[in-house]
Every structure is written in structure tokens, then in C-alpha cells.
Amino acid sequence: MEQLLTFITFVPLLGALLILLIPKEEERTIKNLSVGISFIPLLLSIYLWFAYDKAASGFQFEVMARWIPAINVNYHVGADGLSIPLIFLTALLTTLSLIYSSFTITRRVKEFFLLFLLLEMGMFGVFVSLDLVLFYVFWEIGLVPMYLLIGIWGQPKDRPQYSAIKFFLYTLAGSVCMLLAILGLYFYHGTFDIVKLSQELGPGKPLGPVFGGVSWLAIAAFWAFFVAFAIKVPLWPFHTWLPDAHTAAPTAGSVILAGILLKLGGFGMMRIALPIFPEQFWMYTWRVPIIPVLALLSIVYGALVCMAQWDLKRLIAYSSVSHMGYFMLGVAATAAAWGQANLRDAAAMASNGAAMQMFNHGIITGGLFFLVGVIYERAHTRDLQDFGGLSKVTPYYYGIFMVTALASLGLPGLAGFWAEFFVFRGAFEIIPWFAAIGVLGIVFTAAYILWKIIQYVFLGDFDAHKWEKVTHGAKLTDMFAFEKVTMWPLVLFMIGFGIFPTPLVDFFNTFAQALLGG
Amino acid sequence: MTEFFFNLTWLIPLFPLASFAIIVLWTNRNRLLSTWIAWIGIGLAWILGWAILFLAWGHSSELTPPTHGYPVPLYSIPTGTTELQLGFQVDTLTGLMLFMVPFVCLMIFIYSKGYMNYGRENVDPRYSRFFAYISLFACGMLGLVISDNFVTLLIFWEVMGLCSYLLIGFWFDKSYSDPKRITPKQAGLKAFLTTRIGDVIMLAGMLLLYSQVKTLTFREIFSEETLHHLATTYAFPGMPWATLCAILIFGGAVGKSAQFPLHVWLPDAMEGPTPVSALIHAATMVSAGVYLVARSFPLFVAVEGGVQLAVVAFIGAFTALFSSTIAVAQNDIKRVLAYSTVSQLGYMIAALGIGAYVAAVFHLITHAFFKALLFLGSGSVIHGVEHGHHETHHGSHGHEFDANDMMNMGGLLQRMPVTGWTFIIGALALTGIFPWAGFWSKDEILADAWNAFQHGGHFGVSSGWAFFVWLFLTLAAFLTAFYTGRQIFLTFAGTPRTEAARHAPESVPSMTWPLIILAGFATFLGLFGTPWANQFYQLIGQKAEVLGEHLPHGEFNPLVAGISTVVALSGWFIAWLIYGREPLTNPVDPLEKRLGRLYIWLKNKWYFDELYMNYIVHPSVRLAQACFAFDDKLVIDPLVDAFGRFGRWLSEWLKDAVDIPIVDGIVNGVGSVTAKFGEFMRATQTGKVQNYLLVAAVTVLLLLVLFVVRA
Fold first, then answer.
1. Element (H, E) at B414
2. Domain count, chain A
3. Any chain A CB within 8 A of the CB of B158?
4. Rounded mean pLDDT of chain B?
């Protein structure tokens, strides 16, 4: 099991190669095989969850092999308290997406499943990488399959090509900045190793201060990383690719996009930007508070924009902007407390909250996109004004949707609450004024979820004539078995971590301790 | 034995939670089974709750909040180097709440079976769902009162908020022909969002408190040392942390207990089924706000004479008076009770604001019983009138009949004697007539206010504020008696004003028995809290140490009791003069003529709904639209697209202006020069040996000449 992370990362690639060998007419086989294969990393990641020694913390299951010795690039992977829950989340959402897709994808089946497995590899790769070049390579690998998923399987009326290109180029623009910063770090410090850079940089440490104390270079490199990650998160004002991409993508694509791809940006913030550039991060959260302002804008403005949406999928897409704003506020609070011993626990709580927000947002918003898929498959419309009274006709769907929506609005007792609670707990001690404005977002979130989504879709009387007219006579059935199978694991996590979040926080807390301990 | 039961405290909310899960997941198709599962769940919670209450009673000296209590820890969450400990506890305040909550819930659960028309043809289509929701609600309320920290409290608090939302909007498919009338689904949304505003303020207060004291467990926060720290460190100049946190936490109570200015949701919450109104919007959930303030009472008094107490006292007293003025002009039988609830909650809040902690809790408990009784009674009335209407208008749905409108009633005492008499008992308790429960609890609040005015209050409450509170509450007591009397005379006295009322039948036994039992409590409960043998004081007040001081005992004051009795009787008398002496025959309120524009003003609830709609809701929606336009149409996305278009334009330009003429030009130029040169050189390649020899000879000759010249 020494190579556990390697297995997790490359099993999907192996699966993709296997699928290449199957004739494309054998759709059933392709579907079953890819779902089956996706269970391997899922089981391995569950093993990883329990095998990680939280008491010892730090990076475990590390593998270090020389890759390009001439420039000191290594195949260096490892997992810690931050990445393990995210690896599990990736495996879980991929498996569920594949199950869901195996019932809903009918066009170009072989390519779809092939690309999906490649995508999974790319995401795992980012989470396990401890070398900047490796990180960068996986970061870019993930882009291509998602570009194709949106472009090919998107709904024609949602301008899939436009959205796919926008997604691709926007992220790429960020990546280019990141690449320059990576090279800069290498030229100054001679290493691409993330662990080394995050532990040994700084005055009085083996590698000396970052960029040898040349502050403009350090600031430029910090912003290069920050913008690359902020685009992915996405942080206001870099977010407009997201509603288009989400709306156009097929259901499973939206799930992965919201559930995991956004987390890559967040993960980068916490794995790279914060540990390598703590002083610069601190500078722009505390001295010149640009980052908390952007976080607040994401939260409040994102929630307001949601209130003005009439397309269900677009609304949920915008809700991601708002929700990831909480994440950013948590990271900003952690950064603002940098080096202040009396704020250490507050910083840890903010960091825990931010990390939890990533995990929970994956589960909850992933679930919401599945649920949008459920109704879209039936009605072929997403206009909120076309619906009404569905809770009478499809009570099961209503129940599941309600739980997910409530988790999304951060109802205490469901998973979303703890993340917000700890983010604000940290923020109220470290950057109280920003926190005070940020809590406004909670009210608006409740408004757009209960008013826009629940009330327009589920409440009121069901009008069969209207349904007939807007859907051209589509049959409205309650959830099918495969849809229930897709949703139940997510619902159980929402309730489970809502009631008892300790197992999850335990992981993130080891990360926070390591981050703040140095 | 005692500890064994105390350690089982966590089971109390779990029983109804299990009922909820079982009904939702498995038994929702079987109505009878679902009913029984809900009953068993709340029944077990009731038995265990009372067992714990009686055991705690025996040990009241070791279990008096705020600093004593039996902890039942649950689990902890790591927070950096420390941990956040969550858990439950048993103390005497919890015990008192466990006396009231599960029992009232049980009564309402039993009543609901008949109210939702079990076994009749018009049984509610979502009958089982109803029992699931109220079970979840009971879980929330029970969990709230046994929490030993703010986080668990908040969780259960919001669970109740959710149930309130679901239950108010229970008939979410209902719509009215009058577009101005609020529908259940809108009422549910309004309730949730309004209380959410309070909750967010409370969350901020809790988190600031947590930041300051690094714990959220009540026992630890309310220790003398911690309170002292909070009272002497400052958030802003002149604003100690204790004051700031107390005011913010009070925001939650304002929302949940429907106090001014967040009171607007409660009257509209009456769109829900009546047992819900009794359960959530009278007896239990709305009193959670009062409970919160009572529970955090030490925090509120940590700063002697601080502004936080004045805020609490003012909001409470103002709400008590203000909402009772509105109740005077309402015709909906439930809405009158709703405003009455707001007003009574104001009494409790005001009592806490002048330091009358025991009196507030006492009134909370008695009010829960008699207000639940009144609501269930009103439900029984509505149910009867609906049946009467159903009987007289077979199948005709042409005209909308409002069974809640008191103008459609009259003379129901003959038709529904059990409902009628129990309702009258509830009304006597509410208006504070000796010796019913409300007399004792309300009188204790008024007496405490009066005493604080006379001798200066405890905790630095100024006597001016105390007088203000006393005056407002006494005026409110007059109005309470008046609108309750009006309600009784309009509903039960005289002769029926409609066919529906003429044919209203008495309700089934599963509805009337809870009324009778609750009427018993409304009559006798007050006797446990008489000034001479106040069990409530002994239980939660006597041994309580707040900041090292013991809580004072409320003194009986014959003057105050006399004034409030006279005031209440005169309220009843005037109601009788207007509505009772000559029973109404036509549905026009005589008050309308007498009060004129004031009546319109009151009927429209001081226009708060319109105010909030025009100045908060609509601007928010417009702001949302503006943000979206900014995002999608005007600035951000157009910029991104412009950037993309610029890229394309740049590439086109480079192609046309740089690439083709210059870059490609150079490349082609090199090629064509080479080609030209080659063509030119081709002329020399004749293929004749003589020419080549000639060239060679000439070259050699030239080299020779060069050589000679150099030499």
C-alpha cells in the first residue's frame, strides 16, 4: 500500500485505456465497466480515510521518485488532512456521476465515459501532488476533458461551444500566470517541491526569504498564484465563466465542475498560496484588505444575483459564487491572523471552516445539480416560472430536494452549517467588520433558496395544463431508482456531518495545526 | 437512580425525532400507524421528561442555573488546539421547561388527530406528513431546552424554525381570490426570513461571545469570573462585551418571540393548521426566545444598569402594548390570539428587562398552557363552523367562506358547550382574573415592576424604566381584557350570524379532552406560584447565584393586584357594553364607527407590512436585479467577452497587418530573391565544356595577374 496514492490516481487512466479497447457499440459494457472501475479509487480512498494516522498528522503515503532530474522535477505525492477528504469527495462524486450518466447519456457513450475517467485522474493528481510541476501538469490535464464534456454533451440551446471555450481560456489565462510564478520560484530557490517551499521558506530558514527578499517579485508571484486559483474558485470578479459553463454542461459535468473543479482552486489557495506566501497573503488581507473585500463581494453580490435568476441551473451556479465566498473569507481570516499567537485557534477554526466549506459545498451543490438534472430530464425546461406545485406530484423528489436545499442555506443540523459557523467564528475574532457584513449573506441565501427555488418549483397548486404546455406533454414521474441511488449517499453525508461533524473536522484540524504550527 | 435518568436526557428529543424518521421513510401511507408512532414518540418524551423533572425537583439546590447543572456531554469538535464541547444538561430551568413542553405537545398531538379529520372523508391528504412535521418540531423544542451550550441550542432553534416554515405553509397549494391576502406558502416564507434576520444577529452575538470567552457552554460563560471579564473589557468605548453580546443575542429572541420590530411574521403564521398555531406559535416555539433570554439572564445583568436591560425592557413593554392595540381591530379569531401572544411574550421580555427573572419564567409556563388552550379552542370553533358550512352548502364552492371570521360566528356556546366553556376559562386566565393562572403570573410581573419603581430595581434597573414597564403592561392588561372579551362575546354570545354557525357541531372527543385537561391547568397552575408559596421561585430563583448574588423573591403587593384586577374587569365590562349587552346581528363592528380612522390604522396593523414591503423587500429585489444586470449585461461579463473579442481582433489584425505583409513577406521575399538569383545564374549553366574551360582559363589568368601585382 505504499503506492496507494499512485493507484488511486492512475486506476482511472487504466480504466480509460481499457474502455478504448471496447467497441463503441457495446454501450452497456462500457457503462458498467467505467462504473465498476470508479469503485476502485472510491474504496481505496475510503481505506485512505481510515489508514491516515491523524495523531501523527503531516503528509503520509508519500512517494518520491525522480522524474526529470535535470531540472529537479520529482514525482512527489502525498496526502494530509486537507487532501484526504477531498480525494474521497472526488471519488464519491465521480462514481455517483458515472452511475447517473450511465442512465442518462445516450450520445457518444464511449467518448463520454473515457473522458470522465481521464478527468478523474486529473483531479486526483492535483490533490496528491507535492511538486509544483506535477501539480501544474495535472491541473492542465483536467481542463481538456471538461472542455470536451461541455462542448460536446452540452445542450445546444445553452451555447455549449461558447461556454466551453470561455471556461478553457479563462482557466488557461490563470494557469499561465501560475506557470510563470512556478518558474520564478524554481529560479530563485532551485526546487519545485511544495513541502520544501512551504516549510523552508522564510527569514532564517534554510531557503531564506521568498524570492530572496525581493518584495515586488514575491508580490507578483503571489498574485499570479492567487489569480490562477481565484479564477477557479471562482472569486468575484473572475466568476462569469461559471454560470455559462455550469448551465451548458451535462448534469454529471456540472456536478463535477461544482463539486470538485472549484475545489481545485480552493485547494491551491490552502496548499500553495497560503503556506508559500503567508506574508503577502497577510499583507493583502490585513494591511490592504483586498482579499476579504473580494470574498464579501462574492458572498453578498453572489447571493443577490441568485435572487434575480429565473433559470434553475444558472441560479445554482451563481450560488456557488456566494458559497465559495464563505470559503474565501475563511482563508482570508486565517491569513490575516498570520504570526499572531493569540489568534492561533481562531485562525485554525477559520481554516477548518473554509476546508469544510469546500467539502460540504461539493456534496451539497453536487447534489443540487443532480436534482436539477432529474427535473430537466423530464421537463426539458429549467425556467422557474414553468414549474409549481411539484411537491404534490413528486413528494419523494421534494423531500430529497428540500434536505439538499436546506443544507445549502446552512440550516443548523445539516452539513453546510458547520462550515459557515467556523468560518464566521474565526472571522469574527480576526476580521470582525468583514464578518459582520458577511453574515448578511446568510439572510439572502435563505431568501433565494426558499423563495426562488422551493416556492416556485414545489409549492403552490400543480397545474397539469401548464405542465402539458411547457413540457409538450412530458410525463412527470417521481424519482427513479437510479436517481435515488445517486442522491442518497449525498443526503446521508449532509445529515451525518450535520449532526456529527467531528470526523471531518478532525482531518482539517490536523492540517490547520500543521499550517499554523510552523 | 437519579443519575441514571439524567444520563438518559439525550433520549428526550430522540423519541420524536425517531417518530419523524419512521413516518417519513416508512409509514406515511398508513395514517393510523403514523398517528400512533407520533403519539408514542411524544408520550415517551413526556414520561421521561417528567421523571427527570421530579428527580431534579428533589435535588433543586444542586441543580439551579446558571452555574449548577448536571452535564450530559455529547461530543466535541476540534478547534485548533482546543475543543468545542457540545452536550445537554439537567437543571431546574430545564426541568420546568420539560414540565410544560412535552405535555402541551402531547395534548396538541392528540387533538390533531381529530382536527386533521382522521377517519372522515375530508381527511387531510397530507395527514401523515403533518404528524411527521410536528414530531420533528417537538424534537427541536425538547432539544433546545436541554442544551447546555449555545451551539446545540442554535441547532434545535433552527430545526424549529424549519418546522415552523413547513407547517405554516402546510397547505401550500391554497390560494385566495383576494390577491392582497397572504397565502400559506408566502406566510411560511415570511416567517422563516423574518426570524432568520434575528437569527443572524444572534449568531453574530454568539460568535463574538465565543471569541471572547473561548467557550459556549452556559455553566462556564455564566460563572462570576467570566461575566466579570465580559463586563470589564470593551468592544467599543463605553460598550462592554457583555452588553454588545447580550444585545445581539437578544436579536434572536426578538425574531423568534415575534417582538417589535420583527413581529410581523407571527400573525400571518396563522395560515397554518390550528394545532400548529397552538404548538408553535403560542405555547412552545415563540417562547423559545423568552427562554433564551432567561437562560442567558446572567449575561444580561452582567453590566449593572447597562443599556442592554433597557433595550430588553423597552422592546418588551412596547410590544406588549402595541400588539394589543392591533388585536382590538382584528376579526380573524386566530389573529386576535396571535396578537395576544405577541403581547404576552412582550410581558415576559419586559419582565426580564427589569430583572424579574422568576416572574418571566412563571408567566412563560402558565401562558403556554392557557394560550395552547385558547388556540385549540379556536381551532375547535373553526372546525365546527367549517363543518356547519359544509353541511349547509353541499358541494357549492362558488363563494369563499371564511370560517375564521368572528363576524360569521355568534351564539356558539349553545352549539359547542365544551369548547365554549373551556375557551372562557382560557380567556379568564389570559386576562388575569383571580384565581386563574394568568392572574398569579401576570401579577408577579407587575408587582416586580412596581417594587422596582418604588425601591429601585435589582441589577441597577432604574426606577424610571420600571415605572414605564409597569404602566405599559397595565395599559396592555386593559386592552387584553377588552379584546378577549370582544372575542368571547362575538364568538359565543348572542345568536348565530350565519347558517354555518347555526349548524356547527361540537368537536370529537379527541379534540375536546385536551381542551378539558388544559383548562384544568389554566385554572390550577397558578396556585403553584402564589406569592406565599412560590414553587417556581424555590425551583429556579432561591438558590440561583447570579454574579454571586441570590435572586430576590417577588413580594405580593395588594395595591398592584388591586389595580390590575380593576383594569382587567373594566376591560371586560367595556367589551360587554359594546358587544355583549346587545349582541351583534349584522357583521359590522360598532368599534369601526367610534374609532374612525384609528380603527383603520389598527386594522392595518400600523401599516408595518406595507412599510417593510416598500422599504426592505422591494429594494432588495431591485438591488438583486441591478447586480445581475451589472454582472451579465453591463460590466463584468461584457468585459470578459470584450477581452475575448479583443483577442480575436488582435489575431486577425496580426494576420492581416503583420503576418501576411511582413513576416510572411520576409519569408516569401527570401524565397523569391533566391529564385530570381537562381534564374539569373541559370544562364551560366550552359552545359558546354568550352564555356567552362574559358571561365577556368580566365580565372587562372586573373589570379596570376593578381599574384604578380602583389609580388
1. helix B412-415
2. 1
3. yes
4. 88
